[in-house]
Design a protein that fits this description.
The protein has 226 residues and is mainly alpha-helical. It has two domains: 19-119 and 214-223, no CATH class; 123-209. It has helices at 26-29, 44-52, 83-93, 104-113, 122-149, 156-178, 189-192, 197-209, 219-223; strands at residues 66-70, 99-103. α3 (83-93) crosses α5 and α5 runs antiparallel to α6 (156-178).
């Protein structure tokens, strides 16, 4: 079984790629700017490509274990003297979309060669949080509705009442989702809208395929030969 280890951003970095495969030397050239998207958030796929391009393609990134890389680091940058602001910043950093599951050696090399990304604006942080909250609320509500239909002993009248209630809740979340700017949304609202409980049950499949509750995994992309 692979070992899973959680390490803080500022712990000593060990197990880097050997120097003879380095195609970029941060000691000589300096740290590389972390790629951001148009919102000012770390762009995961651009980051993976950038980091892979600094090491000879023949190098195998397979590590003794994989772990979670927080795209928005250092952790101490996401604190504030104002408790409410600090909680918001911490929640943002821990968003599922702000993490990636990668080989540990690759994780180490990211920290070795790239500059830490700037802290996004309060507006970006807020919209990012709102997007995940509303998407997760929709997914959980639709999933609960499906589970209700699978309860063998629930009376038909009670089932109808419960589904009607969850349908109401679902549409409240749909309206909340409309308030999230499109560039932050984690779903296409028109694909998961529901006019009745039956359509809400169907939307559950689409929401499930989005894997909203899973940290993005990039080990296959990293391990793939160039």
């Amino acid at each position: 079984m692979s070992e899973v280890v959680t390490m803080s951003d500022n712990q000593p970095l060990n197990h880097l790629p050997p120097r003879d495969v380095w195609m970029y030397d941060p000691d000589a050239t300096g740290l590389i700017e972390t790629p951001l998207d148009e919102r000012g958030l770390v762009d995961l796929d651009k980051l993976v490509k950038l980091v892979k391009d600094t090491i000879d393609p023949s190098f195998a990134w397979k590590s003794s274990f994989n772990d979670v890389h927080h795209l928005q680091w250092f952790a101490n940058l996401y604190h504030n003297d104002n408790a409410q602001v600090s909680d918001e910043m911490s929640e943002f950093r821990e968003l599922i979309s702000r993490k990636a599951f990668i080989p540990r050696v690759f994780h180490n090399w990211i920290h070795r060669i790239t500059e830490h990304p700037p802290v996004p604006s309060r507006e970006v942080i807020k919209y990012s949080i709102d997007a995940q909250r509303v998407a997760m609320s929709l997914a959980r509500t639709a999933s609960l509705a499906v589970r209700l239909t699978r309860m063998a002993r629930i009376p038909e009248k009670k089932l109808t009442q419960r589904l009607d209630q969850e349908f109401y809740n679902y549409n409240v979340y749909i309206e909340n989702a409309r308030d999230v700017p499109k560039e932050f949304s984690l779903l296409a609202i028109e694909e998961v809208e529901a006019r009745n409980p039956e359509e809400m049950l169907l939307a559950n499949k689409k929401l499930g395929k989005l894997a909203l509750d899973r940290v993005p995994i990039r080990d296959r992309l990293i391990l793939r030969a160039a």
